[in-house]
Specification:
Elements (H helix, E strand, L loop, with lengths): L1 H13 L12 E4 L3 E7 L4 H10 L7 H5 L4 H5 L3 E5 L3 E7 L17 E3 L13 E2 L8 E3 L5 E6 L7 E5 L12 E2 L3 E6 L4 E9 L2 E3 L6 E4 L5 E7 L2 E6 L7 E5 L9 E2 L1 E3 L2 E8 L2 E9 L2 E3 L7 E3 L5 E7 L1 E8 L7 E5 L12 E3 L2 E8 L2 E9 L2 E3 L7 E4 L2 E8 L3 E6 L7 E5 L9 E2 L1 E3 L2 E6 L4 E9 L2 E3 L7 E3 L5 E7 L2
Parallel strand pairs: 5-14
Antiparallel strand pairs: 1-2, 2-4, 3-4, 6-20, 7-8, 8-11, 9-12, 10-11, 12-13, 12-15, 14-15, 16-20, 17-18, 17-21, 19-20, 21-22, 21-24, 23-24, 25-28, 26-29, 27-28, 29-30, 29-32, 31-32, 31-35, 33-37, 34-35, 34-38, 36-37, 38-39, 38-41, 40-41
Family: Belongs to the 5'-AMP-activated protein kinase beta subunit family.
InterPro entries: AMPK1_CBM, CRP1_MDG1_kinase, Ig-like_fold, Ig_E-set
Organism: Mucilaginibacter gynuensis
C-alpha cells in the first residue's frame, strides 16, 4: 500500500500545471529524476507530520527525527545529501515513467529584486515601493493587511503562504468570495515574500510586478508593508511632484507623489537609518518645508533629514576650548561637517538615530580626528583605527581572564579572518565586544597578543583546514 501511495503522489505532482517546490523549510520538491525532501529540525511536530505525510511516510515518528534519528527515513529509500544542523535534505529517485513530465516554470517578471536574505526570506532593504498591475495586497483601516487572489472560484481550497508564517501549508487559509479569495494577516513594517497555494499548487501573484528568486528556478512575490508617508502641502498648480533621497540614490522618477486634497502624498517602506531627501516640483528641487531637520552637503546644498531606528547618544568629555565638535563614521559616509555636537556642561553631546548594524566612527574637534576615549572597542579600516559600535547587536563575545594581555582581538568568516580589524574592550574581568550578524552559522577565533585560540567558554567548534579548530555561533535573527 505504501508503494501505491508513493506512485499516486508522484502522479499528483507531475501532472499538475506547476510543480510544487520548496520555500526553504519543510518541503517536498519534484524534480525530473528525483524527489528532494527538506526537513527543518526546528519545526513543530505538526509541521513535521505534514511534510512526512506528503512524502508518503505518515507513520514515522516526528519526535525521533527532531532528535536526529533518521533510520526509518533511510529505510524508505531516502538518501541524506545535506545536514547543516538545522535543515536536513534527502533525495530519492522517481522510478515511474516521467518522460512527459513538465519542466519547472520560469516566470518572466517586470522587476526581479535581489536582497541579501536566504531563499524565501528576503534580507533587509533600505526602502521599498510596491508595484502592482492590479492591487491584490492592501492595508485595511484596522491595520490588517489583506491579500486577495482574484478568480479561481472553482478551487476547492486556497492557502496563503509566505515568510510571515514560515511558509506554512496549513496556518493561513483564504476565504472564498464572489470574485476570488481573501486572507487578512497582521504584518509589521518590512519586506515579505509570499505565494498562493491553489488546490496544492504553488503560484506567484501574477498582478504583483515585484519578485525575488526562490532558489528553485522559480520566484516569490514581494510585498512591502509601508511605515512612512512623505507629504508636501500646497503647490496646487504643480503638474508633477516626486521625492528622492539617499535611500534610492536620488532617483527622482521612482516615487511620485499623488495629489490628495491640499497636499501631495506618497507612502513607502523605509528601514531604520538616517536619510537625506528633497522633493522635486515640476523639475525644481526643494527641501521639505514641514521638516526642520536639515543638513548641508559639501557643496552647500541643503537637504531634509529623516531619522528612524535606535537613538545612540554620542558624548565627548572635555575639549572646553573647542569651537566645534562633530562626529562622523560609516553611518554617514564619514562626512565631517554634518553631525555637530552641542556643549552641555563639561561634555559635547549629540543623539543620533541609526539603523541596526556595525559601525566605525570618530570625533572631530576643531578639525582634529580622535577616537572615542570612553569606548575601548576598536575597528581598523584601510589601516586607520576607529572607534567601534554595534547598533541592535545580536551577539556579545566574552573572554574571561587574560588579565595581563595587551590586546585581544576577534576574527572570523564575518571579516575574512582579518586578525587586525576588531579589538575587544576590557570590562571587569572580561574582554568584550558586541556585534550584529546576519542569521546563520558563523566561525570565529580570538587572538590574544598574537596567539590564536578558540573560545574556551563556547562548547561549539569545528575543525578547519589548518588542522586546528574554529569556534561556532548560530544566530537566529
Amino acid at each position: 500500500m505504501r508503494v501505491w501511495r508513493l506512485i499516486l503522489l508522484v502522479f499528483a505532482l507531475l501532472l499538475s500545471d506547476v510543480i510544487a517546490y520548496a520555500q526553504n523549510r519543510n518541503n517536498l520538491i519534484a524534480a525530473k529524476d528525483e524527489f528532494i525532501l527538506l526537513i527543518d529540525l526546528r519545526s513543530s511536530k505538526a509541521e513535521m507530520d505534514t511534510i512526512l505525510k506528503r512524502a508518503g511516510m505518515p507513520g514515522l515518528s516526528a519526535s525521533k527525527i527532531q532528535k536526529g534519528d533518521f533510520y526509518h527515513i533511510y529505510k524508505e529509500g531516502w538518501k541524506m545529501i545535506q545536514n547543516n544542523g538545522k535543515v536536513v535534505q534527502f533525495k530519492k529517485p522517481i522510478t515511474i515513467n516521467h518522460d512527459n513530465a513538465p519542466s519547472k516554470p520560469f516566470l518572466i517578471t517586470t522587476d526581479l529584486i535581489k536582497t541579501e536574505g536566504i531563499p524565501g526570506y528576503p534580507g533587509e532593504v533600505s526602502y521599498g515601493v510596491n508595484k502592482f498591475s492590479r492591487v491584490t495586497v492592501d492595508e485595511l483601516p484596522s491595520g490588517i493587511t489583506r491579500f486577495f487572489l482574484p478568480g479561481n472560484t472553482d478551487a476547492r481550497k486556497v492557502m496563503l503562504s509566505g515568510s510571515f508564517n514560515t511558509w506554512s501549508l496549513t496556518k493561513t487559509s483564504m476565504l472564498k468570495t464572489d470574485s476570488g479569495w481573501i486572507s487578512d494577516v497582521k504584518l509589521q513594517p518590512g519586506i515579505y515574500a509570499y505565494k498562493f497555494i491553489v488546490n496544492g499548487r504553488w503560484m506567484s501573484d501574477k498582478y504583483n510586478l515585484l519578485h525575488e528568486e526562490d532558489g528553485y528556478n522559480g520566484t516569490n512575490s514581494i510585498y512591502y508593508r509601508y511605515n512612512y508617508t512623505f507629504q508636501l502641502a500646497g503647490y496646487n498648480n504643480a503638474k508633477k511632484v516626486s521625492v528622492a533621497g539617499s535611500f534610492n540614490k536620488w532617483n527622482a522618477n521612482e516615487i511620485p507623489l499623488v495629489k490628495n486634497g491640499k497636499s501631495w502624498r506618497a507612502e513607502i517602506y523605509l528601514n531604520d537609518g538616517m536619510f537625506t531627501y528633497r522633493f522635486m516640483v515640476d523639475g525644481n528641487w526643494i527641501t521639505d518645508p514641514a521638516n526642520t531637520k536639515k543638513v548641508t552637503d559639501e557643496k552647500g546644498v541643503a537637504t531634509s533629514v529623516i531619522n528612524l531606528g535606535e537613538t545612540i547618544n554620542f558624548s565627548l568629555k572635555g575639549y572646553a576650548d573647542a569651537k566645534k565638535v562633530c562626529v562622523a563614521g560609516s553611518f554617514n559616509g564619514w562626512k565631517p561637517n554634518q553631525l555637530f555636537l552641542k556643549r552641555v556642561n563639561n561634555e559635547w553631546v549629540l543623539p543620533v538615530t541609526m539603523a541596526a548594524g556595525n559601525y566605525q566612527y570618530k570625533f572631530i574637534a576643531d578639525n582634529k580626528w580622535i577616537t572615542d576615549p570612553s569606548n575601548n572597542c576598536y575597528a581598523v579600516s584601510d589601516g586607520i583605527t576607529n572607534s567601534f559600535i554595534s547598533v541592535g547587536a545580536n551577539h556579545t563575545f566574552r573572554l574571561k581572564g587574560y588579565n595581563n594581555a595587551q590586546t585581544v582581538r576577534i576574527a572570523g568568516d564575518f571579516n575574512n579572518w582579518d586578525p587586525e580589524q576588531y579589538t575587544m574592550g576590557r570590562k571587569g574581568d572580561e574582554w568584550v565586544i558586541s556585534m550584529r550578524f546576519k542569521p546563520g552559522k558563523h566561525h570565529y577565533k580570538y587572538i590574544v597578543d598574537g596567539n590564536w585560540i578558540i573560545d574556551p567558554g563556547n562548547k561549539l567548534w569545528e575543525p578547519n583546514q589548518q588542522g586546528t579548530n574554529n569556534s561556532i555561533i548560530w544566530v537566529d535573527k
